Automatic annotation (TrEMBL):
Pfam families: Ni_hydr_CYTB
Sequence similarity: Belongs to the cytochrome b561 family.
Protein name: Cytochrome b561 bacterial/Ni-hydrogenase domain-containing protein
Region of interest called Disordered, as start-end residue ranges on this chain: 178-202
GO cellular component: plasma membrane
Biased composition (Low complexity): 188-202
GO biological process: respiratory electron transport chain
């Protein structure tokens, strides 16, 4: 009898994934909204909230990386073509690079523009750069490009997950859902093997 391995991510990995997903969506939406606002106390307040959430996202992605090193993700389906496996691994690596680079670029930009980050208005974080207006403008562009790149990659990531769920009908998406069920298990239970169906009764 073949022993089935656990196809799901661990509960902490699932929790971190979805917490970061909602946080990043909120950060991206807030960034677009406040960028168009005229300079005012309300805009500066939104910038502070944005930076606090960005620092939180940075800490969460570091925690997620530490957890991933000690708890490797479940293997991809054996039937998946090797090029798709390579693309999946490459996409995940790039996602992590961007999730680290984006808050760092925001921190650098804030430092160069002369706005110190005070986490939740209590904990002052050190400026990573001295005040430099031109560098601050450049880093703002870098921050924007990185965010747009992450948004495009997330769309591709979601599209690939839905393709696996709706077309390939494998476990790639369900293993990251909080209450996902294993599809292969149920299909194997319902469908008898050819050997079983051809075995004559005695």
């Amino acid at each position: 009898m073949k022993t089935m391995t656990n196809p799901r991510y661990s509960p902490p990995a699932i929790a971190l994934h979805w917490l970061m997903a909602f946080l990043l969506i909120g950060l991206f939406s807030l960034g677009i909204y406040m960028h168009e606002l005229p300079l005012s106390p309300d805009k500066l307040k939104l910038y502070s909230w944005h930076k606090w959430a960005g620092v939180t996202a940075f800490m969460l992605v570091l925690l997620r990386l530490l957890w991933r090193f000690g708890h490797p993700p479940p293997a991809l389906p054996a039937a998946m073509p090797s090029w798709q496996k390579a693309a999946s691994h490459g996409m995940h690596h790039l996602l992590y690079v961007l999730m680290v680079a984006i808050p760092l670029s925001g921190w650098l930009m804030s430092s160069a523009k002369g706005f110190q980050t005070v986490y939740f208005g209590v904990l002052p974080l050190p400026d990573l750069l001295g005040k430099d207006k031109e560098l601050g403008e450049l880093l703002q562009t870098v921050h924007k490009v990185l965010n747009l790149s992450l948004a495009a990659l997330v769309v591709a990531h979601v599209g690939a997950a839905l393709k696996h769920h709706l077309v390939d009908r494998d476990d790639v998406l369900s293993r990251m859902l909080p209450f996902g069920k294993r599809r292969r298990e149920s299909s194997q239970t319902r469908t008898p093997t050819r050997t079983q169906s051809q075995t004559p009764s005695r």
